Amino acid sequence: MLRLYLRPVSLSTYALAIILCIMARAAIPAEVAIVLSEKGGVYSEVADEMRRQLAAETKVSLHDTATLSSLEGSKPDFLVAVGAKAAQALAARPAPTPLLVTLLPRTAFEQLVAGRRRGDRPMSAIFLDQPFARQLNLIRLALPSAKRIGILLGADPHPHFYELNIAAMERQLHIQALQVEKGQDIAWTLQRLLPDIDLLLALPEPAVFNAGTIQMILLSAYRQQIPMIGFSAAYTRAGAILSLHTTPQQIAHQAGDMLRIALSSGRLPAPQPPREYQVSTNPHVARSLGLAIESEQRLLQRLQSME
Amino acid sequence: MLANKPSTRFARLILAQLALLSTSVSLAQIPGEPSERDFLEDLPVVLSASRLVQPLADAPGAVTIIDRDLIKASGAREVVDLLRLVPGFQVGTAYFSTPAVAYHGLADEYSRHVQVLVDGRSVYSPYFLGSITWNSLRLSLDDIERIEVLRGSNSAAYGANAFMGVINIITRPASLSQGARLSTTHGNQGISDQVLRYGGKLGAMDYRITAGKRSDSGFENFNDSRKLEYVAFRGDLRLNPRDELQLHVGASRNSNGAGFAGSQGDPLRTPEEGGHHLHAVWKRALGPDEELSVSAYHMHDAAQEDYIVRAGPLYANVDADRQMRRSHLELQHIFRLNPAARVVWGFEQRHESVASKLMFDTTDRLSIRLRRLFGNLEWRLAPMLLLNAGAMLEKHSITGTDLAPRLMLNFQPLPGQTLRLGATTAYRTPSLAEERADVKYYVANAPVVVPKYLARGGLQPERIRSSELSYLGEFPSIGLTADVRLFHENVSHIIDKTGNPANFLNRWGALLRGHESQLRWKPTPDTLVLLNHSRVRIESEDQRNVDSAPRRSTMLFLSQKLPLGLQLSLAHYWISEYQWLGWSDFLPKHRRLDVRLGLPFQSGPVKGELAFVTQNAQDPYSEFRADYVFKRRTFATLSLEF
Which of B633, B583, B503 is nearest to B96 (CA)? Predict the structure, then answer.
C-alpha cells in the first residue's frame, strides 16, 4: 500500500523535478565571453554593438588578450574573438567552448583552422573579405568596359586564386595576375602588369598592399590611367576609384545574429563572408581618369539587387 | 657666393614647418601576416586634390600634355626640344646657345612672355629683360613625370609672367624612380651628355638624386659651345597618412661661349654661370577633395663675365658679373564649397634682388617685392555647364597693383564633347632693366663715358586681353582627342627700346588672331599620331611685331612600336617664314624632320635601351639668325636601368 501510495508521489516528484530542471535551465542566463585583440578602439566598438544585438538576459563578459586569465573559472556557452590576435590566443587554448571569430581576413581564419586537431573546439567565423562574386559584380556594374582585371600577388601562392578565376570566367572577365617573386621589386612587377590590364584589383595581401607601398602603386597605376579597386574606405580616400567593404559595426550586427542562432540551436552556423557591405567611390579620381561612375547609393542598390 | 641671409631664414622656415608637423609618426605596417589591420588601417591620401590631373574637358583653357612616353619617343635632348610639339609655340636657338621660346610671336631671345615652373618653382630670371633660365631647370628628361603646357594667358592662376602661357613641369615622385639609371649620349657637333641617377629609401623618405652633364659645340663657326653640369635631389617624406613633405635641392653651373670673332663691341668670352635652389613643399590632405599646401623656395643664380670692348683706340672694361636671388612663399588651399563648386585660393609672397654693375651702374642690390592673392571657383552650373571664374590680385613694388581676371565657360552637351568660351586679362610687369637700366661704358684710356641704356622708368605693364572659343572632342573608343582653339588676343603697352642711349617705352599694340588645332590619335597601344596646325595673324603698327610669328606651322608626329620592342618615331615640321624680335634675321619657311629609333633590351636585372636620333634629317635651315644654320644632328643614347 505504502509502495502504491508512494509511487505516484515519487513519479510526480520526478516529473516536477524534471520540469523544474528544464525551467531552471531556461532561467540560467546564457553566457557569451567576448575577447578583444586589444582593449578600446574599433574592437570595443564591435563588442558594444554585439552586446546591443544580444537579448538583454544574455550574460556578456568582456576580456582582451592581455587579460585572458580572467576567463578562468567562467563557463561561457560561446566565445567570440574580435580580431586575429584574439582568435589566435583563443584557438591556442584547449577547451570545448565553441568559438566565433570576427573581424579578421579569411586567410587568417583558414590558417587557424589548418592547425586544428580532432577534439579541438568548434569554430566559425565572419570574414572581413568580400566574396569574389560580389567584387566582380561591382566591377561589372561600375566599370562595364573593364574586362582585364589585374591582380598583384605576394610570393606565396594565393589560396583563393583558383576561386577568383572561376568567378571571373563566369562573368566573362579575365584575370591577369603577376606574382611578386621573393626579392623582386613590387614596382618592377607592377610595371609589367599595368600595360595589360584595365583595372587593378587590390587584394588584402599585406606583403604587397600596405601603407608603405600604396603610394607607389597608386601613382604608377594612375600614371597609366588604370583605376584601382580597394577593399576599405581608406583605399578610396587614398585614391582607389572605388572600394567594397564592410564596417566593423556591420560585422557586429552579423555576429549578434549568428550568436542568437547559436544560443537557440546550441551550434554555430558555418563560417561566412560579410552579409552587409558598403560601396565607397572617389568621384574626383574617376573624373580625372575620364570615367563616369554612379553614386555610392545607386551602386550599392544595384549590387544588392543582384544577390 | 652663397646667399647667406635668405638661406638661413629659409632653413629656419623649414625647421619651423617640420616642428609644426611633429604629429603622429608614419603608420607603415610591417608586411607580414594578414590581419584586420589590412582592412582597418588608415592610408595616406595619395591621389590628393593637387595631384589629380584635371580632365581636359574641365580645364579653363587649352592644354597640351607631354607625358613620359612622348618625351621618350620624341628623341628630345632637353626640355625646349619638347616645346616644338606644342601648337602655337616657336622654338629656336638664339645668341650663345640661348634657347628662344615663344607662343604667338612678339618675342626676342629672352622668352619673357611664358612662365616656366618646375614643381611650382619659377625659373624666370629677373636679370636683364627678364627671361627663362633654361640652364637652371636642373633636371634630366627622365626625371619628368609630365609637362602641362597651358596655351594662352594664364595670369589669373600663375601671375604676371604667365602672359601668353605656362609650361608646368612636374617631376616624378621619388617612389617611382627607384634604383640606378645611367645614360650616355654621343653625337656629332660635339654632343656629349651623361646622366646618372639613383633612387632609394632613407627611413620613411623616398629620394632620388640625379647628376648630369650636357655639352655640345653649338652652331658651326660660332663661339657658342655649351657645357652644363647639374645635380638635383628630390625627397618625398610621408609624415603621416595626411601630411607629406617634398624637398627639392639643386645646383648647376654652365659655361657657354659668347661673343663674335673679330668683334670689338662683343668680343669672344666664356661667361661662367651657376646657381642653386632649395624648395620645400608641405601638403596636408584634409579630405579627398581638400588640401592645404605650403611651398617655399629660395634660389640664387650668379654669373661671372668680364671682358673688354673696344672702339678704335679706345677701350672699356666691362664688369658683367651678376647675381640674382629669389625667396618665395606660397600658401594654397583647395576645397569643395558644395557638391557643385570647388575653390582654389592662395597667397604668395616673393622677394627678388638683382645686383649687376653693368646693368644698373651700381654695386647695390635692387629688389622687388611681390604679393599675390589668387582664387579660382570651378562651379558646375548645370550638368552640361562648368564655369571657371578666377582672378589674381598682384601688388608689385615697381608697377603697383593689378587685377588679372579670367572667365571660362565649358559647355559639355554630350560626353566627350566640350565647347569652351572664355576671356581673360593679363599683365606682364616690366623687368628691372626695362625700368631702371643704366648701362654705360667707362672708357679706360680716356675721360669718356659712353651711355648705352638709360631707362627713365614709369613704365606700365604690358597688357593682354584675350578671348577664345574652342572645341575639345574626346573619342576614347577610337583613341582620338581633338582640340581646336580660336583666339583673339589684344596686346597693348608692348615695351620696346628706342633712342640712344636706349630708353624703354610702352610703344606698341598688337592684335593676334588665328586658330590652332591639336589632334592626338592612339588607335592601338603601339601607335601614336599627333597632328598640330596653327595659324597666327598679327596686326600691329610695328612691322617687326607683324612678322614675329610664323603665319602657318604644322607638325606631324608618328610613333610606332615594331616587333622585338623596337620603337620608331618621326616628327615632321613645316614652319612658314618669320623673324624674331631683337637682332634676328628674316627666316625663310623651312621644314624639319626628326627621326628616332629605340631598341630596348634586357639582360637579367639590367634593363636598357639604345636609341638613335637624327634631328633635322633633311636640308639645313636657319634658326634666329640667317647664319645660325641648323645642320643634321645625329646622336645615340645608351641608357641602363638596374
Answer: B583
Task: Give residue A52's domain range.
Answer: 29-128+249-265
How many contacts (CB atoms, under 8 Å) link A and B? 134
Over residues A56-73, the mean pLDDT reads 88
pLDDT tens-digit series, residues B575-603: 999 999 988 999 999 999 999 999 999 99
B68–chain A nearest CA distance, Å: 9
* Inside any domain, residue A176: yes
**Is residue A9 situated within a structural domain?**
no
Asked if A207 and B31 come within 8 Å (Cβ–Cβ), the reply is yes
Homologous superfamily assigned to B45-641 = TonB-dependent receptor, beta-barrel domain (2.40.170.20)
Q: Tens digit of pLDDT for each residue in B519-545?
A: 999 999 899 999 999 999 999 999 999
Contact B43 A234 (CB under 8 A): yes
Residues of A in contact with B43 (CB under 8 A): 211, 214, 232, 234-235, 237-238
The answer on A181 and A85 residing in a single domain is no
- Domain CATH for A146: 3.40.50.2300
B616 touches B631 (CB < 8 A): yes
The answer, yes or no, to whether residue A274 has pLDDT greater than 90, is yes
Q: What is the pTM of this model?
A: 0.86
Instruction: Please indicate, yes or no, whether residues A158 and A49 belong to a single structural domain of this protein.
Output: no
The residue whose grid cell reads 684710356 is B445
Is the CB of B33 less than 8 angstroms away from the CB of A231? no
Rounded to the nearest angstrom, the minimum Cα separation between A122 and chain B is: 21
Strand ranges (E), B522-632 = 527-540, 552-561, 567-575, 590-603, 606-615, 621-622, 629-630
Residue B62 bridge partners (DSSP): B151
Average pLDDT over residues A46-69: 89
Give the H or E element holding residue B108.
Answer: none
* Interface with chain B: mutation pick from A237, A281, A287, A288, highest number of B CBs within 10 Å: A237
Residues of chain A with C-beta less than 8 angstroms from the C-beta of B28: 210-212
Set of cell numbers at residue B206? 623616398
Q: CB A25: neighbour CB atoms within 10 A?
A: 8
Question: Which residues of chain A make contact with B176, given a CB cutoff of 8 A?
Answer: 187, 216, 219-220, 223
